[in-house]
Amino acid sequence: MNLVTIDDIRAAAGRIAGAATRTPLLTCLWSDPDRPLWLKPENLQPIGAFKIRGAYNAIANLTDEQRAKGVVAYSSGNHAQAVAYAAKMFGVRAWIVVPKDTPQVKIDATRAHGAEVVLSEIGQREVVADEIVAERGAALIPPFDHPDVIAGQGTIGLEIIADLPDVDLVLVPVSGGGLISGVAAAIKALRPAARVWAVEPELAADTAASLNAGELVSWSVDDRNRTIADGLRSQPSPLTFAHQQAFVDGIVTVSEDEIRETVALLAHKANLVAEPSGAVATAGYLHRAKELPRGRTVAVVSGGNIDTDLLADLLSP
């Protein structure tokens, strides 16, 4: 299986320049001096999450003829917004399939970018998306299982190394695996000594089970949907799992309470609004320190699209 290369990621960086924000590394003065922490705040992207990088790169890499027929995506929310936003920038039509339990804030944001939102039954979004592709002849932009999407997400790794060349550990949330696949490919190419660890909710720990078994282990949709981290309810594809086996050094899982506590901590101590999925990597730093390598650490805050009622609940004493 062909893995994404550093050249693919550098090419993606050229394509997305001006469309995705080059997010900074934020120093955390409250972190452990023995393992200083920097945050990579992808919640500051135009659509509130890292997904704009991969979505824009994938659409940019289509031919004019392909773009003229429109694009289709399926997503729990952030990839939906990213594809809708990128399609609007290119002036192409977009159909976005989301499960019925997707947070309304993400559905509303997707529609605001001009995309046609199609609601599906839980666990059926891929099926519905394939039906639209067959009917319309549009191009499918999957949320993680595509080399152009992985390469786009990998631009985060380029920026981390540029801003902190001596980074020792990079913590990345994992679900379908497009984000960690791209980030790990970039980090390992540019700083092989650095370690890349995945962080996953305990209630959706299919990636941890797969990496421990050395093969893909499937969890049911019902099991994965138990976690509050609604952006981390997918499971790896053969493509993303191959990247993880090649480039990822380890994985830890965090509890629902730890995720909730970290959303509040990021708001109060880092002045960042993070959705539960976006807080998972930082939760790993805070609650699994004994299991992680020491040294200069970067945690990716992958997104901040959170329902206001949920945010208020998580911030209340």
Description:
By secondary structure, the protein is an alpha/beta fold. It has 14 helices and 10 strands. The chain has helices spanning 6-16, 51-60, 64-68, 78-90, 104-112, 125-136, 147-163, 178-190, 206-213, 221-224, 238-247, 256-270, 276-287, 308-315; strands at residues 26-28, 37-41, 71-74, 94-99, 116-120, 139-140, 169-173, 195-201, 250-254, 297-301. The strands form 2 sheets. The protein has a 6-stranded mixed beta sheet, with helices on both faces. Helix 2 packs parallel to helix 4 and helix 2 packs across helix 7. The longest helix is centred in the middle third of the chain and has 17 residues, at 147-163. The chain is globular, with a radius of gyration of 18 Å. The N and C termini lie far apart (49 Å). The mean pLDDT is 95.
Observed structural traits:
about 325 residues; alpha/beta; six-stranded mixed β-sheet
* Amount of beta strand: 5-15%
Strand tally is 10
Question: Please, how many helices?
Answer: 14
- Reading the helices and strands in chain order gives HEEHHEHEHEHEHEHEHHHEHHEH
Work out the radius of gyration.
Answer: 18 Å
Question: Which strand order spans the largest sheet, edge to edge or round the barrel?
Answer: 1-2-10-7-8-9
Oligomeric state of this protein: single chain
Helical proportion?
40-55%
**Overall SS class:** alpha/beta
Low-pLDDT stretches? none
Cα(first) to Cα(last) distance is 49 Å
The chain-level mean pLDDT equals 95
Which overall shape is indicated by the principal axes computed on the Cα atoms?
globular
How is the biggest beta sheet arranged?
6 strands, mixed
